[in-house]
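Protein Record: Sequence and Backbone Structure Tokens
======================================================
Scope: a single protein chain, as residues and as a discrete description of its fold.
Tokens: labelled as protein backbone structure tokens, with as many entries as the chain has residues.
Position: the record begins directly beneath this header, with no further notes in between.
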Amino acid sequence: RIVQGFGMQVKYWNRSQLTTSLGGQTDLNTLLSESDVIFVTLSLNKDTRGIINFSAISQLKKGAILVNISPDELIKFDALKWALKEGKLSYAGIDLLSEDEKYFQLPNLIITPRRGWYTKESFERRIQIVKNTLANYLRNCEDHDNH
């Protein structure tokens, strides 16, 4: 919903069939070759480790933007370095888990520490959501017991 506010058309790739009203599912190769901005939001496993490698990056549109909020190991560092230095990627943003200084030398790279979203305000919002969810659950349990 947020990126749609910027006029972006949302497409996504998922390893299994997934239906959502927020966008259309496509295959990974199409997603890589047609997207201006790619958000990587995968969990790390044997199939996803290094999924953003030289082959994947070579399919990207020149000047694309890559944002990774997943584990660092999903992106091959040498491929990211090449893409940023050669302009294949115009920018990249990564929510870095490691403290590896090699990332600090890359051009056009924005780095946030793991859990960069974890501000006081977002933490307070999450606590309120959890409290509301529990209160609603308990209310529903009481309503059920009274019937």
The longest strand covers residues 89-96. The helical segments are 28-34, 54-59, 77-86, 120-146.
